[in-house]
Amino acid sequence: MAILNSNQDGMFFKSLLFQCMLVHFFFLNVLSETHWEDIKVLKQFKDSIDPDSIRNASCLSTWDFSLDPCDNLYGEKFTCGLRCDVIQGSVNRVTEVSLEEASYKGLLNSVNWNLPYLETLDFTGNYFYGSVPDSFGNLTRLKKLRVSSNSISGSVPDSIGFLSSLEELYLDNNFLEGTLPLALNGLENIKRLELQGNKFSGLFPDLSQLIHLDYLHASDNAFSGQLSEHFPPSLIEFSMRNNTFRGEIPSGVIELANLQVLDLSHNQLSGSVPASLFTHLALQQLTLSDNKFGSIQDPDTSSLVLNSQLIALDLSNNEISGFLPGFMGLMPQLSALSLENNRFSGFIPTLYATRVFFPGQGLARFERLLLGGNYIYGAIPRTWLNLEAGSVTVRLGDNCFYRCPLRYFLCEGGVQKSFNECQAFSSIIP
């Protein structure tokens, strides 16, 4: 009997290991087959697409069902749009369907979406139409559903609430309408909800059960009534711009401890802007422009604003009267402030003046200060007259300054309100 030396013994075991790897690869990749039900759905989906919208070299043009989809992902056919995983022994299951923005046109709800292992479905930027398929509720392992920027219409079905594994839902920029179903509270793992750019109406539902929701965008719809007192406590970004909400900002919004971005602009909100928004420990961007606010609550003490994280604040196009808020000059991070087109009067605060030219003392520079369209009077800060166009953005037009010469870019052509208009607003304006 031959005796193997140590080198021969090592080569033998390496060869055996290599052969085992080849067999493993062969069985998992060559002999694996896509589950017949998944193939049925993929065929049904491709058949639902208008063939005239499938261009040469697009993803869907490579789908050839004379071959097994998952076993040919990296061949000449099925070159993109799919991902598969071996789930049951040698059976492949489709786990992702993602199409490029290629102007595909088709009726989504003509397909029975029975893909139980699907994790990602992305049809962003195409021309799919019809209603949101009720059968989307079958996709119980789905984590990402993206149908942004299509032509989907109708209402959101309650079956969407069955997607308890969903983390991202993009329904934005379609033609969806009606009220949002309370069934959305079934999305217990949702982190991002994009609803903007539709025709949703009625009251916005209480979604406070969605304790993992970080991003809620529902701008550019027709939601009405008062804002709910209850929202997910985890919210980081909250945008409801361009709806028809009315009333005051509820305390439930102000108390969102993790909130960094709040945009409620272009609504019909009124009352006073709460002081606690200016002392919030996380809020970085606050946009309340184009509403009907009449006043601003000052923080109890100026020291409270020293911990403010606000970088950008926009209160333009409201009905706010009184002097320019001095405490805003103390917000250390604030670099963009717009108070345009209100009813502010009085002098420009000293801190505003210094923060445009040379802030110092740990204060950020005012890179953008918009004060036009008010009733501000007095002299323009002398240091501002040395500013060069393009170095900062300052707008002072349409106020009551005694003199704002054309040669200074911040005077916006030197146009100011007439003496009679300024006197009619307040007799103390010189």
Can you give a write-up of this model?
It is elongated, with a radius of gyration of 30 Å. By secondary structure, the chain is of the alpha/beta class. Strand 2 and strand 3 (91-98) form a beta hairpin. It contains five helices and 27 strands. 13% of the residues lie in helices and 24% in strands.
What topology emerges from the helices and strands here?
Layout: H1 6-30, E1 33-34, H2 36-47, E2 82-88, E3 91-98, E4 105-107, E5 120-122, E6 127-131, E7 144-146, E8 151-154, E9 168-170, E10 175-178, E11 192-194, E12 199-202, E13 215-217, E14 222-226, E15 237-239, E16 244-247, H3 251-254, E17 261-263, E18 268-273, E19 285-287, E20 292-296, E21 312-314, E22 321-323, E23 336-338, E24 343-346, H4 350-357, E25 368-370, E26 375-376, E27 393-395, H5 419-425
